[in-house]
Amino acid sequence: MPAVTEEITQLLATWSEGDPQALERLVPLVYPELRRMARRQMAREDPNHTLQTSALINEAYLKLIDRQQTDWQDRAHFYAVAAQVMRHILIDHARRHLYDKRGGGAQHVPLEEADIKEDGRAAELVALDEALNALVKLDPRRSRIVELKFFAGLNAEEIGEVMNISPSTVQREWRAAKAWLRHTVSGQITSD
Amino acid sequence: MTPERYQRIDQIFQAALDLDPERRPAFLDEVCSDDGTLRSEVESLLTADRSGLSYIDEPAFDMAARLLGSEVPELAPGTRIDRYEIISLLGRGGMGEVYLAHDEKLDRKIALKLLPSDFTTNPDRLHRFQQEARAASALNHPNIITIHEIGEFQNRHFIATEFIEGETLRQRLKQSRLGTSDALGMAIQICSALSAAHHAGIIHRDIKPENIMLRHDGYVKVLDFGLAKLTDDGDVRIDTGSDGNADLSSGLVVGTVKYMSPEQARGEQVDSRSDVFSLGVVLYEVLTSQAPFAGQTASEVISSLRNGEPLPLKPSALIKPAELQRIVNKALHKERELRYQTAAELLRDLKELDQQFKSTGITRLLAQMKQHKLAASLALVFVLFVLTGISFALIRTFRGRRVPFQNFAMTRLTNYGDAWNPAISPDGKWVVYVRGEGLDRPSPKHSVCLRRIGDTTETEIVAPTEGQFGAVGFLPDGKSVYYRLRLPNQPVATYTVPLSGGPATKLPLTTHGMSYSADGQHIAYIDNNLPEGKTSLIVANADGTNERKIVTRQVPSHFWSGVAPAWAPDGKKVACVAQSEGFTRLIEIDLQAGSERPITSQNWFDIRAAAWLPDGNGSLIAAAEERSPMMQIWHISYPNGEARRITSSTMNSFALSLSADGTTFATDTTSAPTSLWILPVTSQSGSVPFVDMTNGKQIAITNFIGFTNFRYLRLSWTPEARILFVSQESGNADIWSMKSDGSDPRQLTTDPHSDTWPVLSPDGRSIVFMSDRASTENIWRMDIDGGNQTRLTSERSDRYPVFTPDGKFILYNSSTSGKETIWKMPVAGGQRTQVISDLSLRGVVSPDGKLLAYYNADKIVVVPIDGGPPIKTFDGDNTKLAWSPDGRALTYLVNRDFVPNLWMQPLDGGDAKQLTNFTSQGISSYAWSDDAKQLVVARTTFKSDIVSISDAR
Fold first, then answer.
1. Given an 8 Å threshold on Cβ–Cβ distance, is B46 in contact with A179?
2. Is this structure's pTM higher than 0.80?
3. Is B469 in Cβ contact with A69 (below 8 Å)?
4. Rounded-to-integer distance, Cα B886 and Cα B931, Å
5. How many domains does the structure of chain A reveal?
6. What integer pLDDT is reported at residue B882 of this predicted model?
């Protein structure tokens, strides 16, 4: 099983050695796999389900990275990559959803209550994405915690492992990050 | 905002957070005395902290689920529509969803088109549609899809048609261009279908690549005759505004406007000549890969259709031969009087051209033969050879072609659970593989080992190293092995080492996942240009020189670069694993033409390895079906692409390496065996229980369910000291029980669906569990011996049931309110009620029945079960929450270093304490015995060994 994942392992290694471009290269590689699994998961389960994102990513991890070939550092990096990929997938989806609803798509559908609710969710996601873009410039660590927590579904312990900080620090930073994001989303702070 | 300002605000904000709310104003007065803006920023953060960012507490996926949810088909597999049982979604379009279904009565596969409910609400329109569809169903022509039934079931209208295994012309065009001769053949078949329909007075109205199916055997089938009418309110498809321009703001027709005739675009009555025009557009697109009428927007297209001739062709897009260009131009004439007047007329011209095409080929050959008599005699020999070949093939067919590996013998080569990446020598006698030094070591070393099949001696050919191995394989001469290795702090490199021993040398190859052609002269591999998202099939000389790029895909469509291309024995084509639109497919690529074709129409969940059998009649793949996550070895016949499973193991096979004569292959058997352990516990009142790790007793090994479903694992003790657990020993997840010494295992459920999460009733006489056998996940109950299995809940997804201690109610999760919350219902049946209205997951009831603990995002909340505010909340979103047997603490699993261990959180608020200290594997599930003297834990590991499989002829 390892050959298929060798390139990913290699890229993770390159990334951990400090080559930021490796991440850019990882994303297109991991993206289709995560997306496919998400779809498969959706098909199998009710769309209203709380999907366990970390389980999903764990499956991707097992599929993409050979267990025997990696140490936990690689694994930690994988989660960080996966969080970014999840972010891409979800924000992309939300943007497209809003675009379609605003008349960019082929069909105009009358807005119903359910649609408005969905629009709200999509808009929230897009606003969050923008707030995170502002946050990363001011506080990269905090924005990474948000990515791991919200997009990759990792818990405080796991984030602690990935980022090499204590779980209580994660909790504290998470609380502060939420307040800042809310603050930014409500339009009181701009990134510049 | 500057980073300095941010830090300043954040510092004060964090300091204020640590204070009691009533002391914050005074604090802010002090630190922000001279800076009102600073103070208001901090205050706004404090307000934000109080109100929270509600949606961010739910995982992103939950929120996005509704967005993604629109991609979920309306009918789940297993749903019955009249006498048809839905198997899977085939596709969707403006006319509704199309499903693959099974016709129970006639025991055959059919395609079932479910019309959108809002399309059929207008009785007039429905009537017209039914008339049209009935007329179409009377058409009997090899190139028109056969309509079996036009029916109605529970107010939903559907059409059952023959199921066509193949792809739409649109899908085909996305992959590569059709050659002129293929395009001509296809056009003839479509035209022949149109001609027959027109003769019967039926106009198609919507000829486009999406409505043309190409079967793998070359047959073309035209779909959806007359159905376009259903979308019309009359015959006018586009509203024409007062200025004479089409009002396209509704955008309803963007998808098909491209193929519409000018008269159709103008909203006039259409006749058969409109279909001729549409076919002309399709043919034009097939031949030139572009549309005849350029236009960015629908209105531009319409105006081009109404006013203009097709735009002048670019030189590269000229259609050859000139006769074909003339035919296409005539079909595309904007004046219908100057067009082909009937499909039959167009058909005649197409056929004539086709004849010329074929005869030129033969004439040319004959002319050449006259010049070279030797060649002629050789050709004759060749013809005889072909004839002999055909009769031989016929005899073989009549005898029934022998199916490879129908019977096989398996030899186990390793047995220590830590060997992978096998490669077999060309003569089929040796196998090399990577060996680890043990499963439980934190950072084990790995080596490359060699073993002769049937021999017990293992030879180490690469000494143990801390590096990480990639692909391993034999060089074509079978005398050396190559391997890829990443040594610590070094880039990956490919090395070769002779089997006879000797030093390893570096190879100049930078690729992995490569394969050698049958003659050993060439290699093929997938090159990954990641920054540009491109993957390409490359063929090169065996020494890596003379690289040739055959075909390239752009992400998200891509080739799996880790799966080495499989060479066909003739060396002219290879099989590759490609991914597009979320599906994994096995495709063949012609190395000369660069053209692609799917080898089998089946979509796979995953394909990890492929090898072509030396007789060219099929290939082997290591793959998992879309519906089953188990990796097995399959045989795919060639060229008709029938898939047949060879292995049927409860273990996964990811690797596949085939000997040159195709009679033996090496593969791995990988599993996630789980051992159940009983650990003695000593507890003294008021102190933390001591879990005795050294005197644990392993009682059983079972194959737990797949990787994703670890969360559905659950263990339970029965009063007779039996243990309930989940195993997929039977091939799917079922509920089992056994004695706590591991003896007397009994399988309680046998349904082929997943039965998980067993919970024993307090009286010990029945079990509730989760099952997806009714196509949605629901809660079921059964007697303790597995009898009387009945469904308790019927919402779309009900999960994680637990009993109340009096045994009268179950509490469970349901998402019917729009988010996951906890509900309650009487076990005897009756009204269900919502217990918690906030986000709440996997609730557990205290032993005295008074308290309920559950997860809310990153908090554990404890509330009185009869309502009221939380009495405790704890930070943490760890898994597998349970009450300690004395009801004074909660226990859960905490992941550190990706190894889970059991922790205990006293209810009185003291610090959480770690109870177990596993350093590897860890716990995937656990249960306390009622007397608190024992703990059963499930520990899962991953095991991989090497086997060889020989065809038993």
1. yes
2. no
3. yes
4. 9
5. 1
6. 93
